[in-house]
Design brief:
10 strands, globular, 10-stranded mixed β-sheet, 11 helices, 322 residues, alpha/beta
Length: 322
Amino acid sequence: MLKRTKITAALAFVLSVGLGFGAHAQQRTMSIGTGGTGGVYYPLGGAIANVLSKNLPNVQATAEVTGGSVDNLKLIGTGQSELGFSMADAALDAYKGEDKFKSGKIPLQALLVVYPNRMHVVTVEGTGVNTMADLKGKRVSTGSPGSATEVMAFRVLEAAGLDKDKDMKRERLGVAESVNAIKDGKIDAFFWVGGVPTASVTDLAATPGVKMKLIDHADLVDKMNAKYGKLYSAGTIKAGTYPGYDKDNKNTEVWNIIVTGNKMSDDDAYNIVKTLVEKKADIVAVHKEAMSFSLDNQVQERSPIPFHPGALKYFKEKGIGK
């Protein structure tokens, strides 16, 4: 009897350990492609990771620093990320296998339309840059190589009648690096497409002895849309968005979306979208652009990528969409 009791106890221990390992094995990691630390994707991605980790059982989500949209889409394509932020234009290129994705189409599905990205064409007093035409002959950063800033910057320059290779000395810097370079007098202007306010641009605007300027270019939208499809719209960065900046900037905008590949289950997509919409306040506490994580924005016209069936199920429950 004693021997049998010992065996029973030992078996119970093994089973309990096994069950413990089983529960641990169910813990899933979820990688979210964001952007550079000086932009908006990264803090928003961190907030999303926290919300998903707290509210989805057995999920540990992490925000990854990347070059931006293009990198995020490629990471999804290789299965290294489950989710990623992307501008609509870069996502469409990936979906169709064009431009930076000529090596192959990426089977994307949209989870959520999030907020509009505003193109900043940034310079400072003393560079002689007051209009888009003034960029000719200047030192200009068009964004980091893995970013959608670069994609859209090229299209803005093209619409302005400027050759990105011949008409300027071009650098390929992220927003934080661009701000440092313009402070040091190494560049005259830079492009950055992101939410407002962007921390690095705020830093530049608040720098003593520096007068930041944003160059108007909303008049280029029609030319951009004529060539690339109706992806862009005219927008405004309002006076007061950045310290000391007292006039409206007429700019170009494109929507951001959160995308996944073709491997995510309907249940996972449903739960992720439901959590992001219903826990929006927790994300807004980190960055106010999350105010746009609303059901009103979940229309296919704002995403060139088809919505995931799991996302559509949630939208339908809420009376949105078809």
